[in-house]
Design goal:
- Two copies of one chain form a homodimer.
- The first copy, chain A, is an alpha/beta fold.
- Chain A has two domains: 110 residues, Aspartate Aminotransferase, domain 1 (Alpha-Beta Complex), CATH 3.90.1150.10; 243 residues, Type I PLP-dependent aspartate aminotransferase-like (Major domain) (Aspartate Aminotransferase, domain 2), CATH 3.40.640.10.
- In chain A, the strands form four sheets. In chain A, strands 2-10-9-8-5-3-4 form a seven-stranded mixed β-sheet, with helices on both faces. A four-stranded antiparallel β-sheet of chain A has the order 11-12-15-14, covered by helices on one side.
- In chain A, helix 1 runs antiparallel to helix 10 and helix 2 crosses helix 10.
- In chain A, 58% of the residues are buried.
- At the A-B interface, helix 1, helix 2, helix 3, helix 4 and helix 10 of A face helix 1, helix 2, helix 3, helix 4 and helix 10 of B.
Chain lengths: 378, 378
């Protein structure tokens, strides 16, 4: 006799309402596309679909960049692709750190042998562009300057315009992490002057996790092609990847076709809704949630002037411990919200209203559950 | 008026019978699991499912290795994870090259700064273990020695036993690429003495592409933890990944939960069929196909003593050009087979009978189509 263990099956997994920092809920239509029978990565039908995904991503990124595609990995693989391709040992990288993901960028850059100049702001605030510009004046030959547009650890919305305008006049590449912003906030790569921008599919784009949309400007591509050493990361080498994405159609790796199906369908949903309307929806629902939580005594972790609509980071009313209540929210009500990470661990809830989940019914279900758990007034 | 372009939609993609070198056909049951509503990567339900996936992978790999899990990327990300974690600049790597994927391993190792000792065999043949052992005697302090178990470019089946037995007595790690073998042929990591073995989900395991199962022996883990420098590839750093997979459950990246659902279901199918029965099925169907093709005048590209059952590489009868007929096979009959890569480009078909596709009806449909196209006798 073997030991009795509860058998685990996918079909018996309880559905959840995903209101954490991602993944966000995936619409039935996108799930259906995900399950379309697999086709090959070199099938002409797949290549046409991939081209269409890339075209749609250009629209969402607000760019004409030819080299725009989904990396075959999650959002962090997008970050890795940006840094692995742009940096060589000895390069200087100026990195804005106002949360967990800025810290991660700095860590990746250091591992690649870069001299990292960190410009910091307190968690929950945004970086002062003047400080980043000052750092650049001290290190004018920096290879890149990077910031996180929507800090998923703190809920802070970093402005990009001033940095983009300043860096246009320099040889330094502007790298933007848009993992939690793309599809929920305007990113506008070309207008702002971003050189490399990456995201994830599982946040405001409304697709399942597993792909990381990325875009490289012509300037960034020139930088990659003038490297002294090949990219140590073969899997994410964009020069190799572009021979698959481009006219050559040269085999590089087996693209995860089903994830492309889902992303394509999610991007069709974005187009049908309209990008502006989608941004408006995220803003509207975020404001609705934030004012409701405030009236119930939740406190914003994020400085009020820079709160993201799609990701709300709050501490609980009355100094209540977050983890046990978060576990109850999941077990009793099937609602996932995120806990804090880094210095915010144990202190906050991170509540996402992203993609298909950014709707009034999500706010209502969450507020009802919070009420039933006896958290806060009202 | 905008220019008229054919709209592309996932639901209108023609189904294909996938008889190329991968992806292989995915069963309806696995596709259904794939489309189960997404859940979070830190949800206790997901963590339990992930543990169960890892346990099932240990069974298929034939290992007790604790560090056994799917990398969040395709098969090549598995290769990248093996080499990025094991190698540091200046390490020596002995690499067996008898096809495209051996060449790729050597390329990855060089990019990581290793001194690569290539031991070659002609495409279509296997490596003589004696030659690899000789290379090791010349470089006894090599960090690793790696071979491709099932060369997807040539259809050759590399024996592992002698190498495994020899390397047990050394400090050199034995790395095996099992992308096309796992689930179709016995791999038996622990019995053979393999230290790091990686695969892909989209071949003989019968899941969609996007994950790369990998396993590290305790010896390999010790090597990683005694590195002088951190792994330059943060995304694939197994030390970080093991804090997510292990008891700490520390967030590293957003695991692609839907791909895990599909892999779990595919591994349930493997268990229900039985690993031995699954290997037998692949062998039986491969032999059926190969003898039928031989009787129709196809010529094996692979030396007869080392043909893989699950991947058959053949040139066409009568010196017929392969590419136009392969395109017709896809367009008219909806059957995908692969073309050659590297020196075999334009010379061969690569026909996979893998996973859910390894069945008599696949052989019959292919033979009927080949007959209708007027290729070969019979």
């Amino acid at each position: 006799m073997t030991e009795f263990t509860q058998p685990i099956s996918v079909s018996s997994l309880t559905p959840r309402l995903l209101l954490g920092p991602g993944p966000s809920p995936v619409s039935p239509r996108v799930l259906e596309a995900l399950a379309h029978p697999t086709i090959g990565h070199l099938d002409p039908l797949f290549l046409a679909l991939m081209d269409d995904v890339n075209r749609r991503l250009r629209d969402v990124f607000g760019t004409q960049n030819q080299l725009t595609f989904p990396v075959s990995g999650t959002g962090s693989a997008g970050m890795q692709a940006a840094f692995s391709n742009l940096l060589e040992p000895g390069d200087t990288a100026i990195i804005g750190v106002h949360g967990f993901f800025g810290f991660r960028m700095a860590e990746m850059a250091r591992r690649l042998g870069a001299d990292v100049v960190e410009v910091e702001a307190d968690w929950g605030k945004v970086l002062d562009p003047a400080q980043l510009i000052e750092a650049h004046r001290a290190h004018p030959h920096s290879r890149l300057l990077s910031v996180v547009h929507a800090e998923t650890s703190t809920g802070a919305h970093q402005p990009l315009e001033e940095l983009g305008a300043y860096l246009r006049e320099s040889d330094t590449l502007f790298v933007v992490d848009a993992v939690t912003s793309l599809g929920g906030l305007p990113v506008e790569v070309d207008r702002v002057g971003v050189d490399v921008c990456y995201s994830g599919t599982q946040k405001c784009l409304g697709a399942p996790p597993g792909l990381a949309p990325i875009t490289f400007s012509a300037e960034a591509v020139r930088r990659v092609s003038s490297r002294k050493m090949p990219v140590t990361n073969w899997y994410l080498d964009v020069t190799l990847l572009s021979t698959y994405m481009g006219a050559e159609r040269r085999y590089h790796h087996t693209a995860p076709s089903n994830l492309f199906f889902a992303l394509h369908e999610a991007l069709c949903e974005v187009e049908e809704e309209g990008l502006q309307a989608r941004h408006d929806r995220h803003r509207h629902i975020g404001q609705l949630l934030q004012s409701a939580l405030t009236s119930r005594g939740f406190n914003s972790f994020t400085e009020s002037s820079c709160r993201l609509p799609q990701l709300t980071v709050v501490s609980l009313p009355g100094g209540k411990e977050e983890a046990p209540l978060r576990a109850l929210l999941l077990e009793r009500f099937g609602i996932e919200v995120g806990g804090g990470i880094g210095p915010a661990e144990g202190k906050v809830w991170r509540i996402g209203m992203m993609g298909h989940g950014a709707r009034e019914s999500s706010v209502e279900r969450l507020l009802e559950a919070v009420h039933a758990l006896g958290v806060g007034e009202g």
